[in-house]
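Sequence, please.
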């Protein structure tokens, strides 16, 4: 199981009223992966007096989830039937999937149960989107609707424009203009969502390893200097289960690797501990900019 991670304090949560929900007493289900994301949702739920039941994934969820104040049920990544049974017994009709499940875990998880085997047998592809989309479909067939995972966290999404004190300098802007169309094409092909650029050349492309590992690989190739990170969302990003995320560790990794700029898709990227993230970036003269998703990325080819 992954190492422990500090649970974000209440000061980081600024929940919005749920005007769009008719029944705030309704019980929700949380499918918790790793990272801070599940904790942010549960903290927001506590403030709004929203009831949750947590399905914690043994291979992924941080053990601190036991202290969340809600019922927690541990299960393996392949136990889809158990997940549905737990939710139905608890009266859950709406669920949120939050937190990363590593690609390698999906392909190397514990033995799947019958419900998972049936789902896998009906998939034409075995990439991340189709796998989790298949889970969403089985949940829907069981009377459980998978919701947008950022429903309770809109204030934590990256805004459009300069997020840090300084914007992009001439070199970083040139790298952005060169690299962003490439990053969008890679995302469209479902290869990855991040590229690292230097002097209008692609140094590294994300695949299964994630953003931090991609940046570290790039840093080794160019001796940790003048790197620009471009992180995009996919065309019609399914926010129910696939949300681009950055946090303080992202900026710490940028400092260590010589990256000076981070370009994000506005309104599509979740920023953990945003105030601390921005403060650390400003202290190290790092530019973070949110950009609207380009029109080309919202049109199916």
């Amino acid at each position: 199981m992954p190492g422990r991670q500090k649970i974000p304090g209440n000061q980081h949560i600024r929940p919005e009223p749920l005007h769009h929900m008719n029944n705030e007493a309704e019980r929700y289900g949380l499918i918790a992966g790793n990272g801070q994301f599940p904790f942010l949702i549960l903290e927001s739920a506590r403030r709004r007096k929203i009831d949750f039941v947590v399905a914690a994934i043994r291979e992924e969820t941080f053990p601190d989830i036991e202290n969340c104040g809600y019922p927690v049920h541990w299960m393996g990544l392949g136990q889809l039937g158990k997940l549905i049974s737990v939710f139905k017994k608890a009266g859950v009709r709406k669920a949120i999937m939050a937190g990363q499940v590593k690609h390698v875990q999906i392909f190397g998880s514990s033995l799947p149960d019958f419900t998972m085997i049936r789902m896998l047998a009906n998939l034409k592809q075995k990439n991340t989107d189709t796998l989790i989309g298949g889970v969403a479909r089985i949940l829907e067939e069981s009377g459980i609707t998978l919701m947008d995972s950022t429903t309770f966290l809109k204030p934590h999404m990256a805004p459009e424009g300069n997020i840090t004190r300084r914007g992009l300098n001439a070199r970083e802007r040139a790298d952005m203009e060169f690299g962003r169309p490439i990053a969008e094409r890679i995302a469209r092909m479902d290869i990855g969502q991040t590229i690292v650029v230097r002097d209008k050349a692609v140094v590294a492309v994300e695949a299964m390893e994630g953003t931090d590992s991609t940046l570290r690989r790039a840093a080794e190739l160019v001796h940790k200097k003048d790197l620009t990170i471009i992180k995009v969302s996919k065309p019609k990003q399914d926010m129910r289960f696939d949300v681009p995320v950055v946090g303080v560790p992202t900026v710490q990794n940028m400092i260590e690797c010589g990256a000076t700029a981070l370009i994000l898709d506005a309104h599509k990227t979740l920023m953990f501990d945003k105030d601390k993230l921005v403060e650390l970036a400003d202290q190290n003269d790092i530019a973070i900019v949110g950009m609207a998703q380009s029109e080309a990325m919202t049109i199916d080819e």
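The chain has two domains: 10-146, 157-298.
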